[in-house]
Structure formats: C-alpha cells, structure tokens
Amino acid sequence: MPAVQTLDRVVIRFAGDSGDGMQLTGDRFTSDSAAFGNDISTLPNFPAEIRAPQGTLPGVSSFQIHFANYDIMTPGDRPDVLVAMNPAALKANVADLPRGAVIIADSAEFTKRNLTKVGYAADPLTDGSLADYQLHALDLTGMTVAAVKDFGLSRKDASRAKNMFALGLVSWLYHRPTEGTLSFLTQKFARKPDIRDANITAFKAGHAFGETTETFAVRYEVSPAPMPAGRYRQISGNLATAYGLITGAHKAGLPMFLGAYPITPASDVLHELSKHKRHGVTTFQAEDEIAAVGAALGASFAGHLGVTTSSGPGIALKAETIGLGVMTELPLVVVDVQRAGPSTGMPTKTEQADLLQVMFGRNGEAPIPVLAAQSPADCFDTAIEAVRIAVKYRTPVMMLSDGYLANGAEPWRLPELADIPPIDPAFATEPNATDAKGNAVFHPYRRDEETLARPWAVPGTPGLEHRIGGIEKAKDTGNVSYDPANHEEMIRTRQAKVDGVVRDIPDLVVDDPGVEDGRGAKVLVLGWGSSYGPITAAVRRVRNEGHQVAQTHLRHLNPFPANLGEVLRRYRRVIVPEMNSGQLALLLRAKYLVDVESYSRVRGLPISLSELARDLITVVDEEEGRSAAEIAAELAALRTDEVRQFVGEQHFDLDSTQRSVPIPPSNGTSSEETR
Amino acid sequence: MTTTDPSTRPLYKGLSGVPLAIEPLNRKDFTSDQEVRWCPGCGDYAVLSAFQGLMPELGIKRENTVIVSGIGCSSRFPYYVDSYGMHSIHGRAPAIATGVATSRPDVGVWVVTGDGDALSIGGNHLIHALRRNVNFTILLFNNRIYGLTKGQYSPTSEIGKVTKSTPMGSLDSPFNPVSLALGAEASFVARTIDSDRQHLTEVLRAAADHRGSSFVEIYQNCPIFNDGAFEAVKDKDSAVESIIPLRHGEPIRFGAGGRLGVVRDAATGELAVREVAEVGEDALVVHDAHRTDPTYAFGLSRLTDAGVLQRSPIGIFRDVERPAYDDLAREQVRLAQEGGVGDDALQDLIAGSDTWQVR
C-alpha cells in the first residue's frame, strides 16, 4: 500500500488532443472534487479550431483544476500534476510545471511519428529530459483497450475511453469519490450501452490500476474545505449568467426575450437560455448581432425583458441600437463576455479590454450603467443586478463577463429564490398629464422625480398610445424636438439618470486589515471583473509575507460607488491590475485626478498571482523604504502558490502540509522552484 | 443533426389574436396630433391616408397596433398615426419588429420602410424577416432615390442615374424589390401605387389578412429628387399600356382594348408579354397567386423594367400559406410550459442535478 500524504491544495492539468475528451475529464474530476467538499477553481483552455490536425500543438486542449481544503481564488498558476495524453500535450504544457511536478503520460502515443509531428528529436519519456519531474510513463491506451476488450469495440473506439482510464487513475491518486462519475456515465450513454459499459469499465480499470501498481509511492488526500453551510453546486460563469438573467426576469414578472448571434465565448449563454422556454424565455438566433439587439429592444418596447448576449466584436455592431435604447429609454440588458481583441483577436482567450468600448462606444452622449462580475458564481448576482437597474431606470445596462469567468467554474452556494427581492416593472396604466384643453393625456417622457425613469407603457394599454424613436425628444411629451435648450437638458437628464443609479450602489468597502489599529496600508490594490481571483490571491500572499496592503474591487463601473474618490485619496499608492492597457486606470485618473498606477497584463490569460504578488511586494517594500538588495532577497525567498487568507497578525507556517507536491530529492535550486 | 417537423400550415389567420375594438373607430382615431411634414406633393401622404382609412375597417384595437419604421422620409410615418410606434434606426425596423411580433401575439405589427432603408443598409434584416415569415406587414415605399439625405441614387435607381453622388451616372444594377422578396421565400408579395387609393387599400387589406410576413412594394413619387419616376404607370393615358394588372384567377391582360397579355414562351419557358391577336386568348396565363412554388411569381416579377420604368405588373404576386415564425416560437414556449412553471421549477433548475450539502 502506498503511503498517504495530506495536502492542502493541488493543481491538476489534464491535457490531450482536442478529440481526447479532456474537457469532459476535467469536468468530471471537478464535480467529484466539489461533491467531496473541496473548494475548486477551474480553467479550461481549448483551441479555437474545432478539430485541429490530430496530435499537433494547435490541437492541444486542456483543463486545469485547482482544489483545496481552504477557499481558493484562482485555478492556480502552475500545475502540480500534468496528465499528458500525447507528445503535443506534454510539449505545450511542460514549461508551466514547477520542478518536482507529477507527469502522467500515455506512452502509447509517444510514437516516432507523433514525436516528429511536434518536433521532439528524442522521446522525452526515455531520454532523461524530464528528470526534474516525477514521471509516470504508462500505456494508458493499451491498458484501456485491454480492459474493454469484451465489449467488441474496434481498437479505435475502445481507445477513446482512455480519458476515463486516466480519470480513474487520478481519482485513485487523490482519493476522489467515484459515484458521481459512474452515475454520470450511466446517464450520458444510456442509449449506447456498449459505449457506456466501456467507459465505466475503463474508469474502474484506471482506479484499480492505481490500487495494484507499485508505480505510485504516495497517495494524496485533500480534505474538504470549510464553507458556509448550505446546498452547493459547481457553476461556470456562462451558466450563472443565464440563470441570473432568467431569475431577474422571473423576479420582475417579465417574459424574457433573448436576441443573440453565435459568438465565442458567449454562445453558451444562448445555448443555455434556449433550453429554458419553460421559464418564459424566448430565444431568437438572429441573422446578425444588429438584429439580435434590435429584436431584443423591440421586445422591450412590447413589454418583455429584452436581453442580448455577445462578445466584443458583436458589441461593436450593437452600438447604434444600444444608443437607440438610450434615446428611447427602454430596459435592455446587454451581456459582453469579453475576449481578447482587437478585431477577431484571440476568441478563446480572455481579456478585459472592452471597458472603454462599453462606456463610450456609441455616437453622441449615450451613458449607460456598466457592471462587471468578479467570479463565475458572481455572474448570477451581477445579471440580476443588471436586470434590476435596466427595469428600474428604463435603460440599457451593460454586464461585463469574460472568457475566464465564462468557462471557469467554482462551487456555488445555492440561493433561495425567496430571498431575492422582487423587481417592479411598474408599467404605466394611466395618463400622467393634462393637455391645454384639460384632457388627460400620456407624456411618455414625464419622469419619476427620484429616479428620473420615464414611464413604460406597453402596446395594448388603451389611452397611452405614443411614439418613440431615435430623434431627440421634447421633455415630457416625447415629441420630436430640435430645440437647442431642450437637447442640452435631455442630455443632462439622461446623464443624471444614469449617475443617479449610484443611490442603489453600496459604498465601496476596502479590505485593509491593519486599519483598525492604526496600521493601515499605504498601498491599495483596486481591480474590477474577473481579476478579482488573482488579485485576492496575490494580496493574501503579500500579507502572508508580513506586509500591509489594502484591496478593493469594483462591481459598478458606471456609475462608480459614491465613495470611490475618497477611497482613492486615502492611499499613498493605488495599483490597478487589469487585463488591458490600463482602461480603468484611465477612467479613474480622468474622473478623480488621482495618480493611480496601471498594472497592465494583456496576454489573453488571467493575471498571474505569483507575478502580481512579487510586483506588489516590490511596491510595498519601496513604500516601506527597503533597499533594492532587501527587496531582491525577499523576492528570492517568495513562494509562488496560493495561500490561505491572512488572519490578523498570524502568518501561516510553511510546513510540509502546505506543499502540494513533495520536494524531489536534492536539486539545490532556488526556493521558488523547489517550494 | 435531427430536425423536428413543425406544421406546414399557419397556426392562425391574419390578425387573429389581436383584440377587436369595442366601439367602431374612424380615421381620426388613427390620426396623431403631430403635424405631417413631408414635402408638398409627396406620395407618402396618399399612403398615410389610405392606411388611416383602412385601420378602422380592420376593426382591431388602436392600442394593439404597433408601427415600426427605420430611417428615411417614409419612416416618419409612425409619428402621424395615433397608435404605438417606434421610429428606429436605419435599416433595422424588421429586426425590431421581429421582437415586437414575437413577444406579442395580441398586437398587429406594421413595418414602414423605404428602398434605401430596406434594401441597402437593412437588406439583411429584410430577407431574413421574410425567410422566417414573421407575422407583420412591410410597406416598402419605393421612390428609387434617397430623399432625406437629399438626392443620392438608391439600390432601386436605374443604372446611369445622375445624382449628387453619381455625377457621371450610377454604375450598379438595381434590385427589383419584388424579385428579392420572392427570392427570400416571402409568403405574401405585392406591388401597388401611391396614387391608386383603391388598389393600395385593397392590397393593404389583403396583406393584413395574411398570416406571416406580407411584403408590399409601393411605387411612391418623390416630387423633389426623382419626380416622375413612375409616370408611365401613374399617368392615366399611359397606365393602360404600362400596368400589367394581376388579379387572382383571371388571365393577365392589359393595353388598350386588352391587346396585350402575358404568356409562357414555349421555347424558353419564360413569361413574356405578347400581342393577344398573335398568340390567342387561350395562350394567356391565368394568374394564380397561391402557387406554392415561387418560380411563377418570380417570372412575373421579371416583367418589370429595370431601367426607366415603362411597364410593371401591379397586384398580388404571391399569397401562400406557411407557418409564421412568431407563432411557432410561442408554440414552443407554450409546450415547454406544460411541464409547470413558477418558483419551484426555477429553484430546481438553478440547483441542477449535481449538488452537495455542507453542514
């Protein structure tokens, strides 16, 4: 029996060819880990090509999961374990591994032909080049085929189950429960008994192989993470967005109309919503992005909740219609699942570079509220909030997500629908004005005094017939007006309406642990959107080193929380990490005249927590007056993985239970590499 | 990919589902308080007047009428009708109206557009709305010119048109709107003339009665930038030789004393205009707007001059039954809701099948 070692956290990356089922494998491992009670965070990474040539580097698809016995914020920078189903998967991912990481490779795929295809002159499994890692070269394909030989499948079909063999093995290695995957396979392949049985058999065979082989000297345990009591599921950002939109519409008592055009990485929201007609959702796959938002706006005019979902290039096409929504002052929810741009950019890679587009990318003065979700599960709350603002203020609202949130998953404590406040569409039913002759009439632009929202009178309401459109409106009556003073007043009123959303936005809360006893931080890290995870993890690490650093995160990007300016001025230095060239930093500097420092990373990847932690420590050290040599020494000793939340003055000790992989014998390199 | 097999027949008729007015309405009820601001002599006045005359006759509630327009002279139309309306953005009216029609079975939806709006900037939305057969009536005011932007050539202008943007003559071949609509599988396609009040009203009535997309091209004179573009079919003297009248079930015959008619050319299979005296009355094509295959209607549409208009078929080219997109979309929602709706169903959806309990 192998020894059992307890770990706090592990990062595993499953990598293989696009056709190898790595996303499914990762998904299953995630589900089983979540069901076991670990905290989880995942990062799928797949090529834009549907089926790139087999065995090539562009064809590599991977799925990374980070699971832990404490609350984690990111999918992890560097995998502790790499499962490589072919040479391409090894080559594409090995550079990300820290020394001592576990590699499980399917030796059957390391043929001369496959090696040549990715430029390996010699077989890395045998030439000693992987000596710094714990290499397990196993004939996964051969063992799978042997295990399922009784089902009469061709070798090709039989070998397809090798991902389940690998999953079974890794599940054994990390003491994962197996019931979830077994029942999943039973259901998924219910109509194909031979495929079902082959997959189940392969999964069990992988598990049994771990049990019987002597290849693995150690098995690992990661105990459940303490989490607030409740019922949980795992959820991705796109799924949470879809559920949030449905729930928002439900809470408003409005049928939802989604107009959408397929686009990566937003299409899954369309797919998901199209399944939920039962909940009053109509989905319209339009001929283009413009029609998608146009139909949604038409539905809003007709009294439904109009929603459109897209990504950056699609949002650009929708701009004119969003402007029409600003002018007609109708509720409209626009979801931008951002991806790397400009133009087509890198569709499957993440970025936060649409902020200025959604803020300003319309003709004329066309302000709209903008919100951004900070984690996959947070997409649910953010979507509901977007619906609430859109309906209450009769305005298009932009919700920002991104590829990282869209496809990433985390555990989610299920909300009780009853706890979510209702949204009142407050349709107009009566005339609201009197004409010169004393007749009761309807003025479609007579506003609510507090919110400045105009009445929403839907077709079918007698006596409230009215015309709206893109031409400037006369105050109150909504008639066409070219009057200069009226135009200026309307511009200012529309701006004031959006600015007034601030009344519904809670003040920004800063996490600054030392501030209570007068040892507040000098440096504030301010982020928005999906960089919440990496920033929080980096801040924890900085604090873990004994430094003071404050953190806060914006959900509302337009309007900003009322106290934002005051918060910015409270700190000597404000660091703004973003996956763009400094767009939020630009807005903050413009609005508050505070010299915030942009921390810009635009690589199509989430911000690296270890890199950010190092850079933050440098900043904090500078503020604390340390010399360059002292800073260098501290950085050299810095760990790179994700740590627990810093509590009070206690620093967590770095004993072996925190290491996710054992230190390999004698390598005498820097502490960062050995951890 | 699997497919389902929805009905091939419309689920409903015309404006069914739109509530009827309790008290009879009149033209004034459909007249808004806004001053009509088209140029004197503009053909749009006549269309507005015919529309306001027809609406009370349809008997539906005024508040259950929605007019959506794009941008252009004709797109001011909704402001002048006292119903619900949206004057939207250039080319997008069919898309916006698709959202209205799909959301609300109890609303009669009209799209008002022009040749630039519908066929140039909004061409994509037009063909896809027609393909889907969304239940609304599209009035395409075709004046063969850009009026609101002051006189550039349009996608229906004849080749060689000298305008502000084409001082040496335009180069591009025009669209025949009826051919385009038929190519997009429109289930109701007609053409009428602004100045023929009776014919215009008849066609609009038939369009409203049709379930699905009804496409009506209206020859509309722009007295400022393209005056006389339709003179051949409008002038009393020349009209008899220029208008090829389409009446369902009748031989297609025109010209002084019925001297001309439409026949199918034996050699090419194409429809052609011939002297009746030469081909004989029996050779004349009897108009059938209900033919499922659009080939015949398309053939008729090709009898329209592409250059300066001398001759054109007028009437209903095609009127066939096909399910409307919005009816089918609502039917899918209705079927899905048979499973039960409400808080519990939504709570179950959000929970999914794979949950765990933390104590």
UniProtKB/TrEMBL annotation, chain A:
* Domain named Pyruvate/ketoisovalerate oxidoreductase catalytic: residues: 19-207
Query: What GO terms in the biological process aspect are recorded for it?
Result: response to oxidative stress
tRNA-binding keyword on record: no
Region entry Disordered, spans: 651-675
- What residue stretches are annotated with the Pyruvate flavodoxin/ferredoxin oxidoreductase pyrimidine binding domain? 252-475
- List the keywords (alphabetical): Oxidoreductase
From the UniProt record, which GO molecular function terms apply?
Answer: magnesium ion binding; oxidoreductase activity, acting on the aldehyde or oxo group of donors
Oxidoreductase: is it a keyword of this entry?
Answer: yes
InterPro entries cross-referenced by the UniProt entry: 2-oxoacid/accept_OxRdtase_asu, PFOR_II, Pyruvate:ferred/Flavod_OxRd, Pyrv/ketoisovalerate_OxRed_cat, Pyrv_Fd/Flavodoxin_OxRdtase_N, Pyrv_flavodox_OxRed_cen, THDP-binding, Transketo_C/PFOR_II
Compositional bias, Polar residues, is annotated for 657-675
Q: Which residues form the Pyruvate:ferredoxin oxidoreductase core domain?
A: 521-586
Pfam families attached here?
A: PFOR_II, POR, POR_N
- Read off the Gene3D superfamilies from this record: 3.40.50.920, 3.40.50.970, Pyruvate-ferredoxin oxidoreductase, PFOR, domain III
NCBIfam families recorded: OAFO_sf
Q: What is this protein called?
A: 2-oxoacid:acceptor oxidoreductase subunit alpha
UniProtKB/TrEMBL annotation, chain B:
InterPro entries, per database record? 2-oxoacid:Fd_oxidoreductase, THDP-binding, TPP_enzyme_TPP-bd
Write down the superkingdom of origin: Bacteria
Q: Which Pfam families match?
A: TPP_enzyme_C
Q: Which residues form the Thiamine pyrophosphate enzyme TPP-binding domain?
A: 71-218
What is an example of a GO molecular function annotated in this UniProt entry? oxidoreductase activity, acting on the aldehyde or oxo group of donors, iron-sulfur protein as acceptor
- What residue intervals traverse the membrane? none
GO biological process annotations for this chain's record? cellular respiration
The reply on keyword Glycosyltransferase is no
Sorted keywords for this record are: Oxidoreductase
Q: Which PANTHER family match?
A: 2-OXOGLUTARATE OXIDOREDUCTASE SUBUNIT KORB, 2-OXOGLUTARATE OXIDOREDUCTASE SUBUNIT KORB-RELATED
The protein's name is 2-oxoacid:ferredoxin oxidoreductase subunit beta
Species this chain originates from: Desertihabitans brevis
